[in-house]
């Protein structure tokens, strides 16, 4: 315990997940009781056990928003003896042993068979990204977009856990307990940016490493092509030599049995050899349908982190950063706030609006103002003018209770003001996409627990007080879209 922060150290990400699933509510209640609303919970996850020369290294993480944790039976099991294990060892020699002894040709029945070809006489494997050339890990491009870096990946409550874990992996690939690292979330929330930033960081700090980014769709198509060309052995040998594999949209492997079997063997070898595996998905492992249990269990060996829709503050930071990168003068605060309040679905859509504004500003040689923003939004987002936002809610509730908007944000504890403030927070929670923290910020910088209390208080009064319920319903009609 230091100040108002309770830090719990755990030996791996697995225990972090387990505590989050089973005890986070009890811990938060205890914090609220002992430290009040200022109490904070933090985890210290050991990512490097250290040695005689270097002390252990830990990564500090906030509580996650996950709703499930891995079953204890899914924890990594000790690897079997290296005797008779074709995946034992590390590096490219082990890759050759695997190809020589294990998988990687098809029989007439479509099953994987044994290839007795000597590794010494084996021809150079073909490159599935360019089948006209032999594979050379030093020459094959990593398929990374160099513009995706940690420097331009804006951190917020929506992605802090994923970004922190990603940076730890990028600094020490294959040696942390975050292996594999699974990042999941909806469309356009920055998953691909984050995992490619990991790859670019590894390439920048360790250029000798073979880093490879590939979508699950391309991986599948390459495997099918290798089967048709009778080059499955080359396909496997290529991927077995990767030092850091980044597989995007792993859900695409669903119901593709043979492709899953090949990825299972590649995953096992890379993981055992201390190579880093990073994956993305549109949903957590427990919700992935059509994937084999043995693969899903391995996905839980490391850390699963989600990215969510950006909150208001993060959207503002994204807008400012994007415009600065494009060399455009940043508009006044009220213009930026209007844009951030109007586009809150995902980062990709927000960046699309910004790109449109940058183009209009450059072509018309005008600074970006509120009128230009409204014009751009009118063509991209339907009915933006009718959208309920925090400003509208505050003005409407303040007028109904005959008080000023400033009083809603003030520290006064007068009963009539407190009631109006709680009602406004209640509608902000149910009629906007803002997080509790963002709502509290716009009501005089109040804590998210105050917002939670306000929402619960209003809900209880609606159930028990008929007159109050009628007032709330009357206000609700003003916010109906």
TrEMBL record:
Pfam family, any one: Bac_DnaA_C
Region (Disordered), start-end ranges: 51-92, 106-126
Skewed-composition ranges (Polar residues): 106-120
UniProt entry tagged with the keyword Repressor: no
Subcellular location per the Swiss-Prot or TrEMBL entry: Cytoplasm
Assigned protein family: Belongs to the DnaA family.
Function of the protein: Plays an essential role in the initiation and regulation of chromosomal replication. ATP-DnaA binds to the origin of replication (oriC) to initiate formation of the DNA replication initiation complex once per cell cycle. Binds the DnaA box (a 9 base pair repeat at the origin) and separates the double-stranded (ds)DNA. Forms a right-handed helical filament on oriC DNA; dsDNA binds to the exterior of the filament while single-stranded (ss)DNA is stabiized in the filament's interior.
Annotated protein name in UniProt: Chromosomal replication initiator protein DnaA
Species of provenance: Hymenobacter humi
Encoding gene (name): dnaA
